[in-house]
Amino acid sequence: MNKIEKIKEVLKEEGLRITQGRLAVADQLIKKPSAFFSAEEIFLNIQKSKKYECDQVSVYRTLSKFEELGIVKRSSFKDEATRYKLSDGQLNHGHNHEHYFKCMKCSLIEPFEDCLVDKKEKELTKKGYKNLTHHLEIVGICPSCSKK
Question: What is the domain count for the chain?
Answer without folding.
Answer: 2
